[in-house]
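User: Predict the complex.
Assistant: Input components as received:
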Amino acid sequence: MGIEALLFDVQGTATDFHSTVLGALRTASAGRHPGVDWVEFVDRWRARYFDVLREAKVGKNDWTTVHSVYADALDRLLADYGVADFDDAEREDLACAWQRIVPWPDVVPGLTRLKTRYTLATLSNADVAAVVNISKLGGLPWDAVFTAEMAGAFKPDPAAYRMAATYLGLAPGQIMMVACHKYDIRAAGALGFRTAFVARPLEFGVGGAVDVEYEDEFDVNAGDFLDLADQLGC
Amino acid sequence: MGIEALLFDVQGTATDFHSTVLGALRTASAGRHPGVDWVEFVDRWRARYFDVLREAKVGKNDWTTVHSVYADALDRLLADYGVADFDDAEREDLACAWQRIVPWPDVVPGLTRLKTRYTLATLSNADVAAVVNISKLGGLPWDAVFTAEMAGAFKPDPAAYRMAATYLGLAPGQIMMVACHKYDIRAAGALGFRTAFVARPLEFGVGGAVDVEYEDEFDVNAGDFLDLADQLGC
């Protein structure tokens, strides 16, 4: 297909935020809030992040960090659930759980194989610092980190994808966007990027509602990063 | 010193452009131009790059790639030296030699040790694509690639250093700028960054004029990246 580089979504596609953030909440609660459904809490926390990004009318000069979005949403959700006994330091540490999310088990071996043949970069809506922290903790071997913050626009805004192509010095057709979220790869595909869908059935935990159907519209449909490496000849 | 991250200059500090570019020119010439002093040619090529950057009044919307600066300068220099028998493909390949420059021998082992303790990123005036290509070829284990292109301003413009601090989510005092060029670390130091000077006596080849004097004004003076790792406790 003439592909030179792969761009990867991070939260959900490369990493398992659900178990990491759920674990952090349960550890912080330590059983003190038996009436709280922490699984639902994580789902609502993540949903709030999507709501803010969808509404975001931002530019490079008034950028809102995703960390602050998660921190604000946490305060609101804790109030909604009637949890008042987390102090500021505990809240900050919980918001930082999104910077400690761990890779899915197939990710490091899959990326290691893909890296032998392709340039690998992130294209994430998370903050640069968050992607750097996640990648360093998890040993993710990116050749470059690109994020929405560098474009002044969140995915699926075309500016985010175009920024990555400009920085790589490649045409969209030489780049494949890899994500478990179809809106993300559809937006890239509409700009001429190649597309790879990776199913992540556990993105929202066991029994969570997630779209894992393969679609003919994508160039590749893969079960995980090892399957992606197989299909891309690595 | 409370340092969390190290920023590295690439061309000269981490990599030996002189031998790579000189080798590419000599290979392309294949002895056909006995009157040309290719060592002097490389020095003038590099000097032209500095002249253009110094004069550059650029913003994010009218960015000049460094690749085009090198390509334009090559055409002028070949004309100056009366070399007319390089075709367009050969000229393009020569300009791309700046994206194939190899790391100094101490760089990969030094970075590998430093990476165990610090976040490592580039802060280069070269294009993102060039730094990605150089890093991939040389196996340079950066946690992130930052370049002037991302700031819309070349070092020593304060905007370049501040961009890196913003993206890392760190204060200048938590970041050390590492370079063999004193103007670069002095500019960072004036903004509150920590500074490390690394001597590169062969930057312009054997006998080339280069300032390798240690200075008390820098937080660290090092002979190479292994010495830097020693001094930073890695």
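The CA atoms of residues 117 and 211 of chain A lie 29 Å apart.
Let me know if you want any component modeled separately.
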